[in-house]
Amino acid sequence: MLFDTVAIIFCLWLAFYIRLGMTDSFTRYYPAFIVAVAVTLPFLVRMGLYRAVLRYMGSDSIIVIIKACSYSTICLMLAGFVFGQIHLPRSIPFIYWLLLLPTMTISRYVVRSWLLGESISDIFPEFFPNKQNHSRRGIPVAIYGAGAAGVQVMSALDKGIEYQPVAFLDDKKDNAGRAIQGRRIYRPKHFEQMVQETGVQEVLLAIPSATRLRRKEIVQTLEQHGLPIRTVPAMSDLASGRMKMQEIQPVDIGDVLGRDEVEPRHDLLEKCITGKVVLVTGAGGSIGSELCRQIIKQKPLCLVLYEHCEFSLYSVEQDLLKAQSTLNDCKSVQIAAVLGSVNNPERLVETMRRFVVDTVYHAAAYKHVPMVEHNIEEGLRNNTLGTLYTAQAAILTQVERFVLISTDKAVRPTNVMGASKRLAEMALQALSDERSVKFFHAEKFGVESETNIPINTCLTMVRFGNVLGSSGSVIPVFREQIRVGGPVTVTHPDINRYFMTIPEAALLVIQAGAMAGGGEVFVLDMGQPVKIVNLARRMINLSGLTLKDESNPEGDIEILYTGLRPGEKLFEELLIGDNVTGTNHPKISMAMESKEGWVDYRLALESIFEVARNRRFTDLRNQLSSYVNGFSPTSEVVDWMNQTDQPEQRQEREVINYH
Predict the structure, then answer these.
(1) Which of 127, 158, 324 is closest to 240 using CA atoms?
(2) Cα→Cα distances 46→3, 39, 59, 61, 68, Å
(3) Which end of the chain is more exposed for a tag (fewer CB within 10 A), N or C?
(4) Which DSSP symbol is given to 515?
(5) 388 φψ region: left (φ > 0), alpha (ψ -120 to 50), beta (else)
């Protein structure tokens, strides 16, 4: 305010001097100076100019200054007419306006540039569109996408110091050569020219409306230039508070795969959820937590989170409560967090009865192949027995629908994890063909062992492959290895896997479960399998680094082949047989596979766990080979501490392994 007061007085004095050559205008025309200050300053205060943060000053502040200068000039002219003693020449107010406006505007931009460490080219980029020596701090970046989203990203980055937008990339011919606030728009084929002229060090993707396939094409075009490619949060995520502009991330690996997601069918999403009580086991896991996020959007009456890990349960509950606060339609949904194990039948039955559960999504499982390979009994107990206990609890409490989240590793498994999941599938297939059954371990459910329990629950399962970003995915492992400078480890040069995003998998699971009639195996369309080594190479390139190999010994990151892990196989499959049919959803197929009767399955399960209790793991694997179709173990490791059936040798091995 002090500076503006001085500026008003000086500009009016200078106007008199320019027009009349007068140096003593203070004494002769002092009422004009009083009017100018008394009118302009209160107007600026009223318009909030002095409450604005200078480092973030934009065009709105300039508009306020123009209004204040114009208002002051008009009042000065009126004062000359009303108060005859002022006798202002008619040109004085106009000259005063021409002087005051740039003085007040430029002074603020000078202070703003000083606070941000900007140079004159940053203050007026229109006059310096291709200047390379930017004095402002921050990484010079190019924004891919010169649309509304790109301009919003540029404006947001301009107010920070981490990144400095210096150019745009856009594939539209009409935009080539134009400029947005001094930042020139280049076409992708002129990438090298852009780098030379602007010094770009990274590329930020700001194309929220592009399809996955289109984003894949863009990434493939850009990655060959060797600069890091990152993505900025969507404006909807910024507006909802889910993300901040500072959370610029590496490019989504889903864009590399180019897998477009099909618009979900809302009738299928709502069928088993809206207005119902839904329980998710393993709610703190990768798939379980995403299921919960998608379920709460469909407005269930109550969402029950069932999880045995306290921290995971707390995390997903807090995440859902935060999401619930941003979704107005879901604020009435009750969220219940229940600590419990799927191997505790009493807890399962108590929970389902207390909340009167309608739908169960069973996502609880041990899924790390080498870990289960070394802990066979616990893997079978959690994956197979836990699934059977949960299904029997659902049958006992008259749950309408039970959906098992299965895996492609259950198809002709080469590891215990896959065999345990196939046994879980077989349990549901056997139960779904019966109208009533005698429970396995009925006494744990408070039921007589010879009592036949009627089955009114629709039991089904959904099988799919790897999901991007899960706790068992290679993506976070590769990112960390690249971050520390490598090497990136791949088990085998020919190994491949199916991939899909976690949100897509969760939505398809819900839709598949809604189509179930009982006993089906739904298989999700995973697209084409991806070679893991190619995925590693792409991630290295997207990080702006080069692959170190025989053809490029000076590269940054090396890929090392470590050999297949225990139980791991080169190629994953989704179907056991060829009896597969389509559904009315383009991404979901249905397989009708051979089933075993409940009585035979129950006897087999009793035999398997009898051997497991006696810790005869060699015999246990032989039994799995006979009961699980296609099971052919590739690992010689049977159990972490018990690799032999002889107690005296076992004790010796325990000491050796321990040390």
Answers:
(1) 324
(2) 17, 11, 18, 13, 10
(3) C
(4) T
(5) alpha
pTM of the entire predicted model: 0.65
pLDDT band at residue 55 using 50, 70 and 90 as cut-offs: low
What is the spatial distance between Cα 179 and Cα 186, in angstroms, rounded to a whole number?
Answer: 9
Strands 496-497, 458-464: parallel, antiparallel or unpaired by DSSP? unpaired
Query: What percent of the chain is modeled with pLDDT above 90?
Result: 21
Residues 123-143 have pLDDT tens digits of 555 455 555 444 456 788 888
How far is Cα 336 from Cα 370, in angstroms, rounded to an integer?
Answer: 33
Highest averaged pLDDT of the listed ranges 112-116, 276-280, 407-411, 477-481: 276-280
User: What does pLDDT average to over the chain?
Assistant: 79
Q: Of 332, 334, 359, which Cα lies nearest the Cα of 272? A: 359
State yes or no: cis peptide before 529, omega within 30 of 0. no
Q: Tokens 């052919």 map to which residue?
A: 632
Q: Which amino acid is at 397?
A: T
Pairing, β 183-186 against β 179-180: antiparallel
Would you say 308 and 340 are in contact if contact means Cβ atoms under 8 Å apart?
Answer: yes
d(CA 405, CA 334): 24
CA distance 104 to 112: 13
The three-state secondary structure class of 431 is helix
Please provide the DSSP assignment of 49-83 as one string.
Answer: GGGS-GGG--HHHHHHHHHHHHHHHHHHHHHHHH-
**Distance between CA atoms of residues 301 and 648, nearest Å:** 57
Distance between CA 138 and CA 119 in Å, rounded?
13
Task: For strands 580-582 and 557-561, give the pairing.
Answer: unpaired
Structure tokens, 72:
């002051």
Residues of the chain with pLDDT > 70, as a percent, come to 81
Cβ neighbours around 452 below 10 Å, total: 13
Specify whether the backbone of 518 is left (phi greater than 0), alpha (psi in -120 to 50) or beta: left
What confidence tens digit (pLDDT) does each residue in 25-49 have? 777 777 778 888 888 888 888 877 7
What φ, ψ does residue 359 adopt, rounded to 5°? -135, 135
Query: Which residues neighbour 225 within 8 Å (Cβ) at sequence distance 6 or greater?
Result: 191, 192, 195
pLDDT in tens, 140-189: 888 888 887 888 888 778 777 778 888 888 888 777 777 777 788 888 88
Q: Residue 530 is which amino acid?
A: V
Secondary-structure percent of the chain, ordered helix, strand, coil, rounded to 5: 50, 15, 35
The model's pLDDT over 504-542, given as tens digits with 9 standing for 90+, comes to 889 989 999 899 888 888 888 776 777 888 888 877 877
In angstroms, what CA-CA distances link 58 with 70, 156, 580, 615?
A: 19, 12, 61, 73
Residue type, 573: E
Query: Which among 314, 288, 472, 471 is positioned nearest to 390, based on CA atoms?
Result: 288
Q: Cβ–Cβ contacts within 10 Å for residue 421, how many?
A: 31
Residue 259's alpha-carbon distances to 112, 214, 217, 423, 539, in angstroms, are 45, 10, 11, 31, 17
